[in-house]
Design goal:
GO molecular function, one term: ATP binding
Pfam families: ABC_membrane (PF00664), ABC_tran (PF00005)
Structural class: alpha/beta
Shape: elongated
Membrane topology: Multi-pass membrane protein
Protein name: ABC transporter ATP-binding protein
Number of domains: 2
Organism: Holdemania filiformis
CATH superfamily of the largest domain: ABC transporter type 1, transmembrane domain
Amino acid sequence: MKTIVSYFRYFKKELVFGPLFKLAEAIFELLVPLVMARIIDVGIAQKDLTYILRQGGVIVGFALVGIACSLTCQYFAARCSQGMGTELRRAVYHQINLFSAQQVSQFSSSSLITRLTNDVNQVQQAVAMLIRLAIRAPFLVLGSLTMAMMIDRTMALIFLAAIVVIALVLSVLMTCSSHFFKAVQRQLDRISQITQENLEGQRVIRAFSRQRLETQRFDEAAQASYQASMRVGWISGLFNPATQIVINLGIVALLYCGSFQVNSGALSQGNLVALVNYMTQMFLALVVLANLFVIFTKAAASASRIEAILKTEPAITGGITELSKDKDAVLEMDKVSFGYSEGESAIEQISFTIQPHQTVGLIGGTGCGKSTIVQLLPRLIDPTAGEIWLGGVPLRELSLADLRRQIRIVPQKAVLFSGTIRENLRWGNQDADDAALWQALTLAQARDFVEAMPQGLDTLLVQGGKNCSGGQRQRLCIARALVGRPSLLVLDDSTSALDYQTDARLRQSLKKIEGSPAVLIVSQRIASIRHADFILVMDQGRLVGKGTHEELLDSCAVYQEIVRSQTREDQR
């Protein structure tokens, strides 16, 4: 909890003045029964209407001042809770963006979304209640007990007994319910996960007619969440009737014992009414206190989940070195290995060098390690053995921002964001002007269809660019990468949705760029890589061939088999 509590330092003023104004309201509330007692014992007893009206005015004044104090406290509570929630979301989102792909998978994206939204909301609500009620409720309980003791110490014992019994009931119920709150949050994670999977995979679900089964899976998760929430609600719901029984019994005891005191003259009627009012105030404060315990217990469970993110150190951190613009960015891999799990290797002992302005092909069967190599280049993951250099500098020593400016990856699955085409292209370079954007679109073979759109660069893309075809999305992603003028452009099977002619024109245009980047083409198509300066052939995590198309046809059996299989496919 220390990490979460540290965010209070931004809201010291709200944390001080908010509770103080709420405390002032509680003080005026405690004074009201005493005034009521005077009205009964003096005004009504003596039939003094002036006195009654004057004391009634005092009560109205107390109420108005209390309202002003309450509104001021509410303002400070809103500033603190909303501000802290904003700071927490910002910190959590920033931390998530520092995580490696493996760390995101470890938490799961659905759980991260739940923690960023629902869990922060729980903490935010607890902060608001902390300022508004955490001091007021205990103060009213103790204040009511103190005022009762000032009126009659014997009668105050009934208050003390009620507090002890209610505290015991509260501790038992909170102990029983506390571990259920984490279960509720886990069920919310599960619902988020299923929802995310269904929204992303809706085409596949419909293609396989899985709508009914997926709906059933969601219903089961929702039912599990409902049952977990009901268990918490059932236990928490016992508190109000339990405290009502105790308080009502306390009021009965007050009236019973107080009647003897009134008859003997030891206690006035007004003071007996004041004691009943204080018992009622104490009851309401204890109910609030019980609800606070529920809110704080939920918030504690959520805070621990948020803190788990904030305390997780990013697996990949950058250095401080930046590449000199005058230095050629040669990429070198030396005996690089990587395994996603301990004892297993996705790639082993991979070594190669890419010179500036070269075009290199990377090919191999499914699961041979091509995607792993692509992720290693911008340090989305780090090798478990070996070293990678760019421009003679180890990747670990380069700042991540500079490294990822130098190496741009265009994945097979085109990822675009809601906004205009111009805004998406400027992800590559925020300062790029329209001329640079059109040049990148021309090189990426995307200029024609963008110009054909009524609004051109100002055309709005929906989430994921779903209002464009697959080939259009891929070309826009290639153009976005080219806007940044990288030293190495990695096309990770990112022309799979393009026809052969467009693919060929794209490869030709990349060679015509002034100061053209080195290009690494990862592809399953021989046609896409056959004219590369050299080709790397992967098989079962190892580099089994390196050379030009003609050289590999003579020396590499794996490459020969790939060529034969695609030739047979073409003949069919």
